[in-house]
Amino acid sequence: MHSYLRTVGFSKVKSRKEMQEIIQDVINTYDEKIAVENHPDGVFVQYSKNYGCDCGITVCGQYDEDNEFHVEYSFPFFRGTGITSQESVVVERHAEKESYAGACDDMRLGVTLIFYLQNPAEYMLEKYKGNMREGQPLTITGLAREGKILFPVQKDKEAVKVERELTKNRNNLIAAARNGDEEAMEDLTMEDMDMYSMISERIVTDDVLTIVDTCFMPHGIECDQYSVMGEIVDFVNFKNILTGEKLCQMTIECNDIQFDVCINCADLLGEPAVGRRFKGLIWLQGQLHF
């Protein structure tokens, strides 16, 4: 059983039999089907069905010589809006099954984005055709297992403007440092020392969530799970059409990157609103656009 099923409205699915019924429903009444006929082990097929606003279940498997479908695995998905990044993406197959993980180095975050690929069949088709290129457009989304709403940090317009300028300068320095610029490396080191000094002074009197406005950090042992905190830019509530469970979809801005997060309302503490912050644990997914 997938531990993130509850994020798309299937929190009451506890038994394997119930999961099999949902998988069968996806196969019988799918919204999207992609078949890879030139797969070395047979015909690989990806079925997807929406049970809410751009979220649902994907089932992947293969047809044998007798045209019988064998389910290999299934996972909940949530497809976001907009293009998150156009940096170079590296995709690698998981060892135990025909699923894929992607990695993207985005300078704005300061960490390597490692995500679970949502459209493996489409990726395989493009790979076999030889259509892969540098800077493939990528949309990332997060399925949140738990989360809470925090009040925003009060800032005036001038402070926001200065912060954006500093972020832009830092990104330029990181880009230069990656290309071997020693002066940029020294400037970044000095910046980090100044930041450490500032935090050491403020932590005595201020709360840590006042000092740290946003964050995007790896969480736990699995490499595609993160602890995030970001400002809510937009949000919408909707229901799973099968179970009726209430879900919340939020667009959050975190470290100058905007992406969408989906969470079961039962797992969300607080009332979301534009301008407030979301803090939670997410499973990062990514969709490559071809």
Topology:
Layout: H1 16-28, E1 32-36, E2 43-50, E3 55-63, E4 69-78, E5 89-93, E6 100-105, E7 112-117, H2 120-129, E8 138-150, H3 157-178, H4 182-202, H5 208-211, E9 215-218, E10 225-239, E11 246-254, E12 257-264, E13 268-269, E14 277-288
Parallel strand pairs: 7-14, 8-12, 8-13
Antiparallel strand pairs: 1-2, 2-3, 3-4, 5-6, 6-7, 8-14, 9-10, 10-11, 10-14, 11-12
Helix pairs in contact: 3-4
> Which structural class matches the secondary elements?
alpha+beta
**Uncertain segments:** none
Question: Whole-Å distance between the termini?
Answer: 31 Å
Question: What fraction, in percent, of the residue positions are helical?
Answer: 10-25%
How many β-strands, per DSSP?
Answer: 14
The major β-sheet equals:
5 strands, mixed, barrel
Average residue-wise pLDDT: 88
Order of helices and strands: HEEEEEEEHEHHHEEEEEE
Please state roughly what percent of the residues sit in beta strands, choosing from under 5%, 5-15%, 15-25%, 25-35%, 35-45% or over 45%.
35-45%
Shape: globular
Strands of the widest sheet, in order across it, are 8-12-11-10-14
Radius of gyration, in angstroms, nearest whole number: 21 Å
What is the overall number of helices?
A: 5
In words, what does this structure look like?
By secondary structure, the protein is α+β, with helices and mostly antiparallel strands. It has five helices and 14 strands. It has helices at residues 16-28, 120-129, 157-178, 182-202, 208-211, and strands at 32-36, 43-50, 55-63, 69-78, 89-93, 100-105, 112-117, 138-150, 215-218, 225-239, 246-254, 257-264, 268-269, 277-288. The strands form two sheets. A five-stranded mixed β-barrel has the order 8-12-11-10-14. Strand 9 and strand 10 form a beta hairpin. The mean pLDDT is 88.
